[in-house]
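User: Can you help me understand a structure? I only have the sequence.
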Amino acid sequence: MDMYEKLAYMKGLIDGADLAATQEGKVISHLIEVLEEVVDAIDDLYDAHDELAEFVEAMDEDLEEIEDLLEDANFCDCDNDCDDCECDCDFDDDECEFDDECDCEEGCHCGCEDDADIIEAECPNCGEVVCFYDDMLGDADAVEILCPNCDAVVYTFESELREDEEAEDEE
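Assistant: Let's start by predicting it. Here is the structure, written out as tokens:
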């Protein structure tokens, strides 16, 4: 018997006992009304819980697909020493995609030395070297680049400064 059935049964008992005319009957009737509201609220919670459970399950399935894709990508975690590692990578040292070391951080394989438009800035708080593209500065009046580790401002760009630098370069 679910909550609605139990509540209907209690209403039937009260109606059958003909308590509605007494003070106790009125109190019990009001309690039944409050219980109806509580049962409705609980039912709404069950519905919301079911909806969230479906959403979490869908996210879990999506995450599982992403994990499978990443596993299939054969990322090498052997610091450019693919012959000596015990990983399942298919990289040969001569063909390892991580052979290009960059200046921004030991073990970083971002390829930023290949691009002349990369700006490197060291975080004043934690010392993390942050690499970003010059075109991220765009046409905005002001841009702040934050450290991914501690959220400190690593680089500040204001368009007036850039225009002044360009004018100096032209002279």
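Now, to help you interpret it: The beta strands are 118-122, 129-133, 142-146, 153-158. Helices lie at 3-16, 23-72, 159-170. Let me know which part you'd like to focus on.
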